[in-house]
Amino acid sequence: MSVHEDMAIDITRQLIDSLFGSDSDEKPIKKANKFSDGLSLIRAFSSLQRGENLKSPLKTVNTNSMDKKWQIWYWKPTNRQAWNWEDFLQMKTSFSTKEEFWRCYDELKGFEFGLLGSHFNYCVFREGVKPMWEDPANRGGGRWVLEFPRKKDWRHISHLNDIWLKLVRILLSITGYNGSSDDYINEICGAVLMIRHNVNKIAVWTKNADNTLKNLKIGQTLKASTGFGGKMFYTNHKSNDQKIVVNREKKIRFKENSPQ
């Protein structure tokens, strides 16, 4: 790698870090515009697509009707010795308007984490897309993962529940309502709340794990909108490699040698 290429990667990382940081009052779009040669710098990352700019977070649209119908699923195995993922997957209900969503709201928040055990998934996905890696819409995709080290107190449960409900509402406002022209919206397949023994997780699934720039945009929006301050990373469904990591100090690391 040449000195110029190394400098380009370093500057590009600083640019992207600034989009995720919250220490400055300056808007991300103004920061990004400071780099007139931003596109050439972004090209230093082979995983970033050509000809696209990093701008402000995704816009939300507040209307009552949704372009897509959404479905609520849950998954809980009853026999861990003979797992067949789909056998334990159940679709609970669906909705396509704001009114229907609010009727389903209790379904999203009405469970007690302590009663779910240590292995349970709760999912909100577009109609026609199952919350499985094998689904055609998910085969080439990946997911943003937000980690919540498990603690046995009400504050942990409350925080996890708050971020989960906030994230679901944000996803619906980004991806589901009429009038949005942002081409990032179709990248999102759904969201999963994962209850586990040591670390609970929330994941947002996207269609294309190789579309790093769009995935960065989605991650930026999720972090800024939920106020989540813990570790989050983007990983490929197939390889499970962490391709993008945002640590507690809001710094981004790219796993440059990760398989594409």
UniProtKB/TrEMBL annotation:
Source organism per UniProt: Oppiella nova
Top-level taxon in the UniProt lineage: Eukaryota
SUPFAM superfamilies: eIF4e-like (SSF55418)
Keyword Glycoprotein: no
GO cellular component: eukaryotic translation initiation factor 4F complex
Name of the protein described by the UniProt record: EIF-4F 25 kDa subunit
Pfam families xrefs: IF4E
Membership in a protein family: Belongs to the eukaryotic initiation factor 4E family.
GO molecular function: RNA 7-methylguanosine cap binding; translation initiation factor activity
Record carries keyword RNA-binding: yes
InterPro entries: TIF_eIF4e-like, TIF_eIF_4E
Keywords annotated in UniProt: Initiation factor, Protein biosynthesis, RNA-binding
